[in-house]
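Notebook, bench 3.
Goal today: get a predicted structure for Cu(I)-responsive transcriptional regulator from Fluctibacter halophilus so we can plan the truncation constructs. The sequence was checked against the plasmid map this morning, with no discrepancies at the termini. Length recorded as 137 residues. Pasting the sequence as submitted so the record is complete.
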Amino acid sequence: MTDWLTIGEAAEQTGLSAKQIRHYEARGLVRDAHRSDAGYRLYDCHQVQQLTLIRQARYLGFSLREIDALLQLWADPTRASKDVKALAERHRQAIRQRITELQQLEKTLSALEADCRGDDDPDCAILASLTDPEHRT
């Protein structure tokens, strides 16, 4: 006999909201919930583990596509851990690239702020720069 959790109990156990659980179910990341005679969604321990993996992976910034791949690897008892590691390494590299891009954005914004007097005069170097087609950021 399977111990079933309601969507509220699954949400509490996984740290996801009921809305998020329904979303991941609709996206096909988690198989459709069993339904009680009254039509309530019920989740088994396997589904709760899937939902926990999804929450943890989302926290780490994995995309839904990457999470789908992680779930497939998790469900495959013949998987090679090197495949999981390769997916994580690709994701980490994408994060590093995004950090580099964000650092450049911060540098550009700092320069724009430095050019602005920030007084009561309507002239603004930030707006002038943002509307100048010759100025590329």
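The radius of gyration is 23 Å. The helical segments are 7-14, 18-26, 45-59, 64-75, 81-115, 125-131.
Flagging this for group meeting.
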